[in-house]
Structures are given as C-alpha cells and as structure tokens.
Amino acid sequence: MHLYRTHNCGALRRDYEGKTARLSGWVHRKRDHGQLLFVDLRDHFGVTQCVIDVASPLFKQADALKLESVVTVTGKVVRRSPETVNPKLPTGEVELQIAELAVQSDAEPLPFPVNAEAEYPEDMRLKYRFLDLRRESVHANIVLRAHVIASIRRRMIEAGFTEFQTPILTASSPEGARDYLVPSRLHPGTFYALPQAPQQFKQLLMVAGFDRYFQIAPCFRDEASRADRSPGEFYQLDFEMSFVTQDDVFAAIEPVLAGVFEEFAKGRAVTKPPFRHIAYDEALQKYGTDKPDLRNPIIMSDVTEIFRGSGFKLFAGIVSKDPAARIWAIPAPGGGNRAFCDRMNSWAQGEGQPGMGYIFFRGAEGAGPIATNLGPERTESLRMQLGLKDGDAVFFVAGQPAIFRPFAAAARLKLGRDLNLTRDGVFEFCWIVDFPMYERNEETGKIEFSHNPFSMPQGGLAALENQDPLTIKAFQYDIVCNGVELSSGAIRNHRPDIMYKAFAIAGYSAADVESRFGGMLNAFKFGAPPHGGSAPGIDRIVMLLADTPNIREVVAFPMNQQAEDLLMQAPAPVPPERLRELHIRVVLPPEKEPKKPG
C-alpha cells in the first residue's frame, strides 16, 4: 500500500464498500457525536467523511486533531445508512472507518476559518493567500482558470496557430502605461523593461514568416488597480495572423471564445458567431460607452431637435447657447410612475448631478414638469420616436456628450437593473469597430493617437494625406462581453511610409520614430505581410465565467490595490551592496512637513 494514499478524497464510491483505503489530506471539519467522532478530510479532489468510535485506541489522538492539520488515515470503506447519506458530496454514500492515523503536519490556530465562505478583510486574505486558496470557491476559481487556459490553448492549436514565447526582458514600449524597469548590472546606467504586451515581437514574428502565432502571455504595467484589472501583471491570449483582413481576425477568434464560454458556461447562453459589430460612434450614442452591456436592452437617443426652441426653457437654452450641446433621452420601460422617477432623480443628485429630468406616461399622455412645458405635440413626437407606451418613462441628460456620457452610461445600467430589464445567465459578445485614429488633447490642443499607434488607418496613406485627422478611422476593434472589454486589437500598419506619416500627424519626427521603434520599422523595410491580431485577457475571461466582479478572485497570488504582495512582502528595500552592483543610488521623495498647529 502506498505510504500516503491509495485514493484521493474525492474518489471513494459505493463500489469500494468493504475495501481498505488510505487517504491523506487536510482536516476540514470535526463533529463529535458522543460515541462517534466524524472527521471530514479534504484534498484538491474533494472531501471524504471519516469516522472513529470512542472505543478505538486512536480516538484520543483523532479528537485532538486541529483543523487544517495534514493527516493520513487508513481503514475500511463502509456504506452510510440511508438517513446519513450526503447527496451534496460525490463521496456522500460512504465513509472510511479509521483504523490507522498518522499526523503529517500539525496546524497552528488559523487567522480565519478555511471551511467557511464568509467574507474576510482582503488584506488578511492576501497575507495568508495559501490558506485563502484552500477555501472552496477560491480553489474552484483557480482550477477553472487552469481549465480555461488549457481549453484556449487546445482550440488555438486546432485553429492552426503555433505557440511561441517572446522575451520578458526587453526595451521600453509605447503601449501607454508605465513600464516596470529592470536595471542592467553589465551595462551601467541602462535598463530593461518588462513587456507591457508582446506587441512588437508578435509583429516581428509575422515579418519572419510564421503566419499564425499565439501565446498565453504575461504582461506587466505599472498602473493603478481596478476591480477588473490587476496591478503589476496580467495574462492575455496574445495572437497575430498574416495576410488577413479585419473580418478574417474576427472569424478566427470568435469560435475560440464562443467555444470556451460554452464549455464553462454551466447552462448560461453564449452569443453564437458571428458576433455583432457596433461602430465606436454608434456605441457612444446608444450606450454612452465603448464597452456596452448588451444584456441591457435600453438604447439612448439624441432628442436635441425636439427640445430646440421648445417651451422647456432649460433644455432649449442649453442647446441654443452651446452648438456642441445635446439632449439625450434614456428610455425606462416600466418605470412610469412618479415614485420611481423621484428615486432616480435622488440617485442622480447623489452622483453629483443637479438632478435628472423625466417624463412618465399615463395612457398616451406624458406627465411631469417637462411634459407640461414641452407641450403635447412635442411630447407625443418624443414618445413615438422612442417607442414608449403607457407605464413607461424617459429620463434626460443635457450638455456636452463628452462630459455627461459617463453619467448617462451609469444611468442606463441602473435603469436596466432596477427595472429588471438586464438579463441574467447570458454572455453577450460584440465587436466595437471603427475607432478614431486620432483625438485632440483638450489641454494642449495637439493631435494624438487615440488608441494604438501601430494600427492601419482606414484609407491608408491617402487618408492621412487628404483627410482631417480627426475624421480618420482606424482598423481597430475591441471585443466586449457583458460590458467588460476583453481585448483591443487591430490590423497593423505594416508599411514604413504610412507609419512615418501617421506618426508625423501626431507630432513625431522621422528621427523620433526611428529611435523609438527602430527595430520594428527596420524589419518592415525588408518585406512585411499585412497582418493583424488581438489579445483577449485571460483574467477577465475567467472573471466572467466565475461570475465574480473582482479580478483578484481568479488570480492565485494577486497584489492588493496598492500593488503590494502582502504574502511575499514585495516590493521591499534591497541591501546597499546590491544597489552598488547595479550602479543605483536611491533618492527618496522628501517627506511632507507636518502641519503647523493653528
């Protein structure tokens, strides 16, 4: 018999009855029933109930076991009586009668229980992450992550992609976030950077002729944490394809993503390919965001002309004074009563807004101050345009869309939730396409890249030479699921002449381009295929499948929101001799002076 186990703790069934088995695992729970002591033993695979009689010479040792101690038990497998069967456990029809007991590792008192799913402070959970990972839900999330990655890898290989690894120590990248820098000991005063993404390397692989590349790529960005983004590092399904159009990229990755989600959806519906395409400008108008949650059916509309010159002087005045001002309507099907509308108005005030105007409909007539001042003819025109009926309402936001759009998007989501319009149990995918190539920096007035500087402009060189830069669209696209951006991607700019011109519009000289992107630019001069790709985020995919809003729940050893690893106590100072080896002197920021009293 094996020293530690003949079976794992999720394996025993009724057909093992009468056989001797040996199990090893953690003491999950203990229950003293007087003459009998029950010990639930847990390992990676499951839980098995073990039992020992008070008459056993091992009873005292078993009774002294501490929770989370690691033990090995040997004994006969017996069937439970019908009234004690646990249908929630795969092993619930049997138990193991303890005949031998060996303590492999005694556990000290726990900082928090492992056998409960209660909420505990996140800093405590991360400090003792090895314990937190023993909890059923977190453990299941990490196993899910492993299975998702395995499924993605299999599907990508079946789709004709080849897996390559790209460097971790590299040069600084123009991705937009801050790099993590690594000092070079051999080359004093110089630094490597950890890759924000394998962007340039995967494009170089296309230039090298490998045609279809992918990897489960680690990426490093020195940026703030969010619920859906880990500070420090994250993983993405990075892929690139040669001789492809935008639609070819979509056709390649949609079956992979849909297949993975269907495999792990547990009955939830998944959008079937081909996924819907929504232009960037359309997404901003209808949903207030380029990451729309399509489970929510509410679509916003521009109703500026209905209010222009109307009797509702507030909105009429806004649009007459500011040519950029617009009035947007947010329908609220089923929200047509004053109590609900007043609650939304109070919510808006809590969000820092002056309030939220509304009309609600009784029969065919609109009610509320806006309807009274707008007049019956314009109110009816509004109702017809929005397709509203008795019992519905509509809310309004006014001003410049660039300013009010985030609030409008939040209001749309709240209405969808509060009116039970947002569907649960579905994964709604879409592509956001036709991103603007450039945008104007409001502070400096300069033209800047709005998304990815390596994207091919729609219309190519002719568009760059002849169009207003702010009207040029790019072959850039995002894939979005349930309001979560899974990735950005693009058809790449593979021609040096187009690249020089694209960067010149954004204020870069030819020398700037050559110094910053010389490696890739030089490669393009020796024959580069048209190519494109994307990089869906692994962490976000698993977060959606696990139905958790916090990405740290699906990462085995995440940092906290301050980018600290509380388990390994990083970042940490290093000894002076190491700094001397690296030719580095630490210059700390001056401490803030304490406030003077009075």
Structure description:
- This protein is α+β, with helices and mostly antiparallel strands and 598 residues long.
- It contains 18 helices and 24 strands.
- The strands form six sheets. It has an eight-stranded mixed β-sheet with strand order 6-9-10-24-23-22-19-12. It has a five-stranded mixed beta barrel with strand order 1-2-3-5-4. A five-stranded antiparallel β-sheet has the order 13-14-17-15-16, sandwiched between helices.
- Helix 4 (136-158) runs antiparallel to helix 6, helix 4 crosses helix 17 (538-545) and helix 15 (496-505) packs antiparallel against helix 16.
- The radius of gyration is 30 Å and the shape is globular.
